[in-house]
């Protein structure tokens, strides 16, 4: 499989090195900054949950309190831990008192960094140990029940009502789905808080809340026992609350998260600085939790032509890979995205799609690539659409993709019904079973059309990456080099939530995650010292 296309290995190395330097440059920028979402995530991992009398989430209440007092730049953890030590309170109790106005976190005698770091480590260990227990539980269930063969069959539920989603998710598992993704309610990525509790009124999808995660996880565990295989749960770790949702998913044992470094910038107009800082912490959490991330390169081809802009998909895959590596996320958890989105009326379109998929498989051999179905060129002709989906499935099994988001033949007409999903699953199962090992028997013509196409895409991607390396990722996004979408460095949503770290900045969870993920920091180095160094 690795040598089917004779690609220029030197070009692959150049592309990876350029992407690595792009990511490293951004990482230096990220290291000096935090966001309100990162600080809320720290509080959630410390055990703070619930809402105040006005239904504002308590993590938001505490972070807004510290921001208003001008004390958030040293991290939300320090103030909460200091109050807990002084009054003998848990983080939850501290947050509740802040919410009632009975406690000002900036008016409490300072306990000293040594005491705060010691208590911070204890809280971080407790929060991360809970995530470790979830990861082990997942591994135990997979050993007991088994799982579906790759490519995993990935389907969507999107009713807006979590209780109906659970019913549909169970139905999908019985039909043969391996991954059930709960589509998030329209616009949730643009709100700077996480809704609370079970929700029943989402539009175009269901709100991502911790209780909704718990309910769906419980339902899929039940049906997993029934059908005799582990069913993975997927949600959307993106938008203005990206790291918070990563934490919630880790605490409720989600298995897959949509988590792209650039998607929110390009397709939701979220400020690029905010997104890139948030994605770094969210990926550390996902990596530690054993959650497979799915990146969103497939979306580039909804705004740009799939033939002309194929290299932008590969360039973004390289960049996403390097950001993931910096966060300690191993290749087997990198569901790098791409899509079967060429115009079906194009001559040799199948050949070009096969070349693109095979190229991605060879360049990222250990990643469980996420392959997206045809959507842009689907029509009301359901018979043609079903054939397009079948050809998409054939490319996937021939090239060893990892996650197959199934296409629905009625997709261009309406939200697909349950029986449409059944037909999509049967289509994929038929092709995957009948062509399971066909790819092992096929060789591609050396120097032929497929090899020439793949090498051309690689050449363009490397040239693009080296240009981005010269001008910087921010400038590349401003120029619209990805997905033909231009964004401003200081525009978009959420920039006001970005802060430069102050002297002594402290995030106990980042400190402990870096240690446990072996990300290169000395174990004895204190967070206080790191804060001084970065300033």
From TrEMBL:
Pfam families to which the protein is assigned, alphabetical: Lys-AminoMut_A
Signal peptide location: none
InterPro entries the record matches: Cbl-dep_enz_cat, Lys-AminoMut_A, Lys-AminoMut_asu_sf
Gene3D superfamilies in alphabetical order: D-Lysine 5,6-aminomutase alpha subunit
Molecular function as annotated in GO: catalytic activity; cobalamin binding
Domain D-Lysine 5,6-aminomutase alpha subunit stretches: 5-510
Protein name, per record: Beta-lysine 5,6-aminomutase alpha subunit /D-lysine 5,6-aminomutase alpha subunit
């Amino acid at each position: 499989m690795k040598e089917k296309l004779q690609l220029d290995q030197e070009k692959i190395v150049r592309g990876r090195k350029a992407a690595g330097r792009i990511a490293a440059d951004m990482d230096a920028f990220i290291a000096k900054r935090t966001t309100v979402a990162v600080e809320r995530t720290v509080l959630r991992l410390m055990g703070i949950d619930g809402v105040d009398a006005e239904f504002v989430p308590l993590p938001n209440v505490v972070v807004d309190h510290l921001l208003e007092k001008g004390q958030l730049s040293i991290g939300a953890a320090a103030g909460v831990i200091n109050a807990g030590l002084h009054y003998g309170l848990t983080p939850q109790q501290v947050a509740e008192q802040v919410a009632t106005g009975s406690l000002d976190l900036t008016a409490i005698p300072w306990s000293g960094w040594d005491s705060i770091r010691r208590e911070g480590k204890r809280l971080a260990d407790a929060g991360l140990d809970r995530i470790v227990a979830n990861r082990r539980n997942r591994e135990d269930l997979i050993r007991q029940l088994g799982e579906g063969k790759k490519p995993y069959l990935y389907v969507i539920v999107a009713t807006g009502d979590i209780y109906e989603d659970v019913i549909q998710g169970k139905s999908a598992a019985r039909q043969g789905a391996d991954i059930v993704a709960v589509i998030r309610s329209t616009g949730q990525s643009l709100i700077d808080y996480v809704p609370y509790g079970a929700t029943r009124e989402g539009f175009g999808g269901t709100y991502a809340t911790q209780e909704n995660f718990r309910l769906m996880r419980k339902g899929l565990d039940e049906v997993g026992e029934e059908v005799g295989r582990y069913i993975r749960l997927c949600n959307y770790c993106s938008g203005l609350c990206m790291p918070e949702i990563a934490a919630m998913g880790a605490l409720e044992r989600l298995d897959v998260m949509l988590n792209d470094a650039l998607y929110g910038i390009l397709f939701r107009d979220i400020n690029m600085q905010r997104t890139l800082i948030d994605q770094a912490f969210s990926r550390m959490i996902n990596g530690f939790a054993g959650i497979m991330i799915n990146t969103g390169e497939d979306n580039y081809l909804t705004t740009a032509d799939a033939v002309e802009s194929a290299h932008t998909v590969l360039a973004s895959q390289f960049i996403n890979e390097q950001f993931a590596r910096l966060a300690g996320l191993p290749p087997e958890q990198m569901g790098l995205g791409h899509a079967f989105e060429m115009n079906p009326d194009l001559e040799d379109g199948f050949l070009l799609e096969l070349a693109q998929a095979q190229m991605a498989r060879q360049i990222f051999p250990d990643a469980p690539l996420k392959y997206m179905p045809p959507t842009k060129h689907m029509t009301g002709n359901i018979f043609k659409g079903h054939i397009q989906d079948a050809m998409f499935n054939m490319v996937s099994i021939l090239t060893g993709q990892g996650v197959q988001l199934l296409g629905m033949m009625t997709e261009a007409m309406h939200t697909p019904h349950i029986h449409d999903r059944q037909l999509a699953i049967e289509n994929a199962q038929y092709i995957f079973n009948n062509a399971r090992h066909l790819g092992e028997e096929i060789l591609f013509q050396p120097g032929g059309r497929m090899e020439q196409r793949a090498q051309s895409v690689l050449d363009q991607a490397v040239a693009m990456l080296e240009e981005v390396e010269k001008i910087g990722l921010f400038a590349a996004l401003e120029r619209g080099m990805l997905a033909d979408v231009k964004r401003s460095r200081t525009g978009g949503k959420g920039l006001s939530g970005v802060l430069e770290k102050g002297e002594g900045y402290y995030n106990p969870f980042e400190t402990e995650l870096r240690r446990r993920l072996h990300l290169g920091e000395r174990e004895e180095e204190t967070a206080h010292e790191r804060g001084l160094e970065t300033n």
